[in-house]
Amino acid sequence: MAVKPDIKYMFEPRGIAIIGASQQHGKIGYTIVDNIVSSGYMGGIYPINPKGGEFMGKKVYSSLKEVDGIVDVACIVIPAKHVRGAVEECAAKGVKFLVIITSGFSEVGNVHEEKEMVAYAREKGMRILGPNIFGLFSAAASLNATFGPKDIHKGSVSVISQSGAIGAAMIGKTKTEGIGMASIVSVGNKADIDEADLLEYFRDDKNTSIVLMYIEGIKDGERLVDVLRETTKKKPVVVIKSGRSKRGALAAASHTGSLAGSDSVFDSIIRQCGVLRAESIQDALDWCKFISSNPIPRGENAVIITNGGGVGVLAADACEKYDVRLYDDLQAMKECFSGTMPEFGSAKNPVDLTGQADAGDYDKALVAAFERPEISSIICLGCETGLFNAEEVSSILRRNYKKYGGEKPMVCSFFGGPSVESSVAKLKEEGVPVYTDVYQAVSCLGAMYSHYRNIKKGYENPEKREVDGVAIGKVVEGVRGDHRTFLLSHEAMQVAAAAGLRTPKSMIAKNIQQAVQYAEEIGYPVVMKVVSKDIIHKSDVGGIALDLENSKEVVEAFESITFNCKRHKPDALIQGMEIAEMVKKGVETIIGARRDSAFGPIVMFGLGGIYVEVMKDVVFRSYPLSKNEVMKMLASIRSYPLLLGVRGEEMKDIETVAETVIRVGAILESCPDISDIEINPVVVYDNGQGIRAVDVRILLTKEEEMDKKEARE
Ligand code: COA
After folding, report:
1. Nearest residue to 663 (alpha-carbon basis) of 697, 689, 625, 634
2. pLDDT class for 346, splitting at 50, 70, 90?
3. CA 42 / ligand 1 centre spacing (Å)
C-alpha cells in the first residue's frame, strides 16, 4: 500500500483538473469550472474534455496526459461508467486527491465498484473524497470547487456534510447569516475520506476555529470517537444528526441492545466526546457564528440585564435548560448594579432595570457588568416600552460590544415592534450577537459554556481494571464447547466474580439432599433457580422460587420447580438447581456493556425495574472512560436522586456502582468472545455497603461474526 498523501494538498492544491468540464450552461461540469475560476483560485486550473478548445479563458485539455503542470486534485464530473478510466488516468498523472462528484455508486447498491475503486486509488497513493458529493470549498486556497452558490464568505467555520443538498443549502444560509467559512467539504458516500480524517486536519488547521458536521450515519464510530475527543479539546465541534435506524435494536437480545438501538447511544457518546449537539440547522449556525466570533468566558458567572421581569424569568428558565449558571453573590450584585436603576428595580440576578429604563440606564448596567471581573458573561434583554428607544439602546449595545466584546461574551435579545426589529437586523448585520428570541440567545451562550467546560476539563485518563481473564476464558471455552452463545446463570456469575463483582453466594445442587445441605451452608432465606440450557426464561416456566425459609420449603420448591419445568418443556435437560443467597432489598439498578455496531464497546447504566422498562431512564458511554465521566454518567439519569437517598434515606454506595460500571466494561474488553453483558438487577446498598450483582446475563459473539471481525482486522 502506497503512503497516504498529506490532506493539506486537498485544501491547498497547487493545481486542479476538472474531468468532465463542460461548456454547456446548466451542466454540473460547467458550474464547477465557473465557480473555481470566479473564486479567485491562484493555482493551475485544467479543464478536461475530449472536445478541447478554450473555456472561461482557460485552455481545455483533451486528456489529463496533456497537462504539464502539477495536478494535486482532480474533480471528476463524468457519468459513473467512465469514472474508473478517469481514476486510472489520474494515477498515471500523479494526482493526490480525487473529488468525485458523480453519483451512482454504493448509494444505489454499486458497492463492489466503489470498494474496488478505493482499493485501486489507495494502492496508487491517491485518496478519494466522495463519491456522490457536491464538492469542496477551501478559503485558504480561495477555491470553490463545488456546484453550490458562488461568493462564499471567508471566515473560520469549517463544515463537513454527509448530505449534499443540506450542505449546499447551508452555503447559501451561511451567506444570509453572515457566517464566514474556512472550508466546506461534502463527504457523500464516505468511501475513503470520512469525518475522522477531516477532523484530524481541521483540529490543527489554523484557519478553522469551529467545525460543523451534518451526519446521517456513522461508519467507523470507534475512530470517530477518538478523533472527536482530541479535536474538542482544542476546538468546538457542533453536530447535527438525523435519526438512527431502530432495525438493529429489534434484533438485539438484551435490554442493553434494544435500548442502545435508539438515538440515545449516539447522543450520549458524542456528548461524552465534548461535542455540541444541535437540534436544528438554525441552532447549529447560530452557535457557530457566536462561538467563532466571541471570546470564551473566563468563569461561570452569567448575569441577565433586563427592563422586563417576565423576559428576565424566561431567560433564567433558558439558562437552566442550556446550563448557563447565574452569578448568585447577592452582595456583589448589589454593589455592582444598585447605582444603575431606580429604587424599585432589582439588583438580583436577573438585574431588573424596570420598565422605565432608558438607553442611559442600559449603558450604566452594561459598563458595570463588563468592568466587574467576577462577572463572566452577559445576557442583555429588552422589551419595547414607551420609554424604550430602540435606536438609542442599539447604539449603546454597539458601543459597549465594540469596546468590551473581545473580553467577555454577551448575547442580547430584544422584543417589540418594527423599530425594534429593524434595530435588531442592523445590529446583526454588524456582527453584534442579538436575537429576536431569548432562548435562541441563551442557547448560544450555553453552547459556548459547554465548550468552555470541555476545554477546562482537559484530558482525563480512562480507568482500567484487571479482571481474571484466565477464569473468564475457561468459562467461555466451556460454553463454546457446548455450542451455545449464551451463558447459563451460574457461568455468568462466575464471570462476574472473576471481575471482582459481588455476587450472591450460590451452589448447584444435583438432588434434593444437596439442595437442603447447600441452603443450610448459605443460610436462610435462599432462592432456587432451575439450571438448564434449554430454559432461558426461567420465571416464565415456574423455574424460580424465592424466599425459602427452611428445609421443608427447599424440598417443596425442588419438587415444584422440577414439575413445572417438565410440564412446560418435557424435553428440557435439567442440570440441577441453583441455590443462592436471597439478596436483601436495596435500590435496583441495571448495568450493561456491549459491542455497538457503530461505536465499539459501550457501557450502560440505569435504574432497574420500571425505570428501565417503562421510562427508558438509561445512559450510555463509550468504553473506556475516566472516573469523572462515570460519575457524571450516573448523575445524568433522571432517577439519580434515588441513589442520593430520598426522604431521609442514606445515600447509596455510588462509588461501588461506578466501580461496577468500569468492571463490566473491563469484562467486555478482556474477552473478544463476549458481545453483551447485562446485570439486572444490581442491588445497591447504603454508602460503604456495596452492591450485589443478582442476575447476570452474558451473550457471546456469534462465531460467524467473530470470523468477520478477524477478517477485517
Ligand atoms: N474525460 C473528460 N470529459 C469527459 C469524459 C472523460 N473521460 N467523459 C465524458 N466527458 C465529458 C462529456 O463529453 C461532457 O462534456 P460536454 O458537455 O462538452 O458534452 C461532460 O464530460 C459531462 O459528461 P455528460 O455525459 O454530459 O454527463 P453529465 O454532465 O450529464 O453528468 C454527472 C455527469 C457527474 C453530473 C452525473 O453523472 C451525476 O452523477 N450527477 C449527479 C451528481 C450529484 O448529484 N452528486 C451528488 C451531489 S450531493
Report:
1. 625
2. confident
3. 25
The closest residue, in CA terms, to atom 21 on ligand 1 is 20
Q: 461: Cβ–Cβ under 8 A, 6 or more apart, which residues?
A: 626
Residue 379 near residue 315 (C-beta atoms within 8 A): yes
Residues 70-108 pLDDT 10s: 999 999 999 999 999 999 999 999 999 999 999 999 988
**105 Cα–ligand 1 center, Å:** 15
Strand boundaries in 416-570, DSSP class E: 434-435, 506-509, 526-531, 544-548
In this model, does residue 255 exceed pLDDT 80? no
What pLDDT sits at residue 243?
A: 58
Ligand 1 centre to CA of 101 (Å) is 9
**pLDDT band, residue 539 (cuts 50/70/90):** confident
Three-state secondary structure call for residue 558? helix
98 lines ligand 1 (CB under 6 A): no
For residue 130, the ligand 1 atom closest to its alpha carbon is: 46
The CA 82 to ligand 1 mean position distance, Å, reads 9
Nearest-angstrom CA–CA distance, 607 and 618: 7
Residue 262 pLDDT class (50, 70, 90 cuts): low
Q: Does ligand 1 lie within 6 Å of residue 77's CB atom?
A: yes
Of ligand 1's atoms, which has the minimum distance to the CA of residue 186? 48
| Ligand 1 lined by 49 (C-beta under 6 Å) | yes
Helices and strands in the chain, H and E counts: 26, 29
**Site to substitute for ligand 1 among 28, 30, 133, most atoms within 8 A of C-beta:** 28
**pLDDT on residue 402:** 96
Cα angle 400, 402, 406; round to 5: 100
Task: Compute the distance between CA of residue 527 and CA of residue 546 in angstroms, rounded to an integer.
Answer: 5
DSSP string of 103-132, one letter each residue: --SGGGT-HHHHHHHHHHHHHTT-EEE-SS
pLDDT number for residue 116: 97
What are the tens digits of pLDDT across the range 279-312?
Answer: 888 999 999 999 999 999 999 999 999 998 889 9
Question: How confident is the model over 433-445, as a mean pLDDT?
Answer: 95
Which positions ≥6 away from 493 have C-beta within 8 Å? Answer: 503, 506, 693, 696
- Does the beta carbon of 24 lie inside 6 Å of ligand 1? yes
Provide the β-strand partners of residue 592. 604, 678
- Quote the crossing angle between the two packed helices 654-670 and 469-481, to the nearest 10°: 60
Mean pLDDT of all residues in 508-524? 95
pLDDT for position 253: 36
Centre of ligand 1 from the C-alpha of residue 59, in Å: 19
Q: Does the C-beta of 51 come closer than 6 Å to ligand 1?
A: yes
Does 20 contact ligand 1 (Cβ within 6 A)? yes
Measured in angstroms, how far is the CA atom of residue 62 from the centroid of ligand 1? Answer: 14
- Largest Cα–Cα distance of the chain, in whole Å? 101
